[in-house]
Amino acid sequence: MASPVLSSALTSTWNRFRVWDLTAVELRVSLDQWRLWTLMLAVAGGILVTLGQQLSSLAASIGPSAGPVGKVVSLGGAAAIALSAYFAREALSNENVQRWTKCRSTAESLKATIYLYRAGVPPFDGTDREEKLVDRRAAIEDAVEVVEPSVSQQEDKVVDLSPINVQDYVQQRVNDQIEFYRKRSGEYQKKTRALRQIVLWLGAVALLLGVVSAVEPLVAGWTAVIATVVAAISSHVQSQRYQTLMAAYQSTARRLEMLRDKWEASGKSDITSPFVDRDNEALKAFRITPRSPTIHNAGARSIQNPGRRLTSMG
Fold first, then answer.
1. Residues 59-65: contacts with CB within 8 Å, 24+ apart?
2. Which long-range contacts (CB under 8 A, 24 or more apart) does 32-36 make?
3. 111 within 8 A of 17, measured Cβ to Cβ
4. 269-282 burial string, b = 16+ CB within 10 Å, else e?
5. Cα angle vertex 151, ends 150, 152, to 5°?
6. Chain centroid to CA 64: how far?
7. How distant, in Å, are the alpha carbons of 30, 88, 98, 131, 293 from that of 95?
8. pTM exceeds cut of 0.85
9. How far apart are CA 30 and CA 88, in angstroms?
10. Between residues 255 and 76, which one has the greater pLDDT?
11. Of 28, 103, 170, 220, which has the maximum CB count within 10 A?
12. What is the DSSP letter of 231?
């Protein structure tokens, strides 16, 4: 087990983790904001184009100014749709998503290494543990040398990096991970439910407008707009992969609970390498690889298996 005196290698590794972690958070927030903007621009564009067309068609009844106004509104709608497509292609490019993924993977690999070091399990159970910690940190960061963190300073706060025993490890690493997965799964479930309700009621409105359009042809255009909005929201939900993430979070939480309970039932009082390895295997099953520029992943956290790299998202 480590000496109570904190080494500079451990402190430096924690600081590097915070740099990569804050960079990943910054990139994720940016991606989420751009996804929301593309959705709003697409919806606003569809509404404005239809409104402009109807204003132009009503110029004879509401005045000559309706024609020019309708053209301006239609142009505004077309511009919004064009901007939505542009931002989806540029701001949400696969390159930007991969950059966030690599930053999150690097941060979680460093954090997992720190926990292994604090727990004093292999490969950090010998007299050369600090040298191995520096080597592991260098290897993790060298693997993403093409990506540079955008955050240069860490939060100025006191962090407990003292050695941990088995109770600390289970509470701080395993239980905390389980709680995180449960909480995030619940958040995605609420978002999915809310968006489904919106789609349901928009569908009902579209149905009613379809009935009204039989006697008022102008209403038919708005039925098409609602269909476009529903399609945009459905595409947004699919791009966020809420269902996939919920299933992954719930499955991993159950797996970790099972491993923890089996370990506790065994009556062991120390942190064994097989226990850590089995935790790693459970988390390995949670790995989600980006497949498109519209992916949005959750902030998963991992326990790093010695000699094996785990890609986790968040």
1. none
2. 32/296, 34/87, 34/91, 34/92, 35/92, 35/236, 35/239, 35/240, 35/294, 35/296
3. yes
4. eebeeebbbbbbeb
5. 115
6. 50
7. 14, 12, 5, 34, 8
8. no
9. 13
10. 76
11. 103
12. H
**Token code pair at residue 256:** 């970790």
* Rounded Cα gap, residues 106 and 303, in angstroms: 12
Q: What are phi and psi of 226, to 5 degrees?
A: -65, -40
Confidence tier at 294 by pLDDT (50, 70, 90): very low
User: Please, which residues have CB within 8 angstroms of residue 21's CB and are 6 or more apart in sequence?
Assistant: 107, 111
Cβ neighbours, 10 Å, residue 152: 9
The pair of structure tokens assigned to 85 is 């497509």
- A 10 A CB-CB count for 261 gives 10
DSSP secondary structure letter of residue 305: B
Which band of pLDDT confidence, cut at 50, 70 and 90, is reported for residue 3?
Answer: very low
Instruction: Of 162, 157, 90, give the one whose Cα is nearest residue 119.
Output: 162
| Cα radius of gyration rounded to whole Å, the chain | 26
Say how far apart CA 74 and CA 208 lie, in whole Å. Answer: 25
At 5 the pLDDT is: 56
Strands (E), the chain: none
What single DSSP character describes residue 267? T
Q: Dihedrals φ, ψ of 312, to 5°?
A: -130, 155
CA dist 256 to 164, 176, 189, 261, Å? 19, 11, 20, 8
Per-residue tokens: 128: 């050369």
% of the chain beyond a pLDDT of 90: 13
Token pair of 83 as six digits: 């901007």
Residue found by looking up tokens 């006191």 in the block = 158
Distances (CA, A) of 294 to 83, 92, 184: 16, 6, 19
The burial of 250, by beta-carbon neighbours within 10 Å (0-12 exposed, 13-18 middle, 19 or more buried), is given as middle
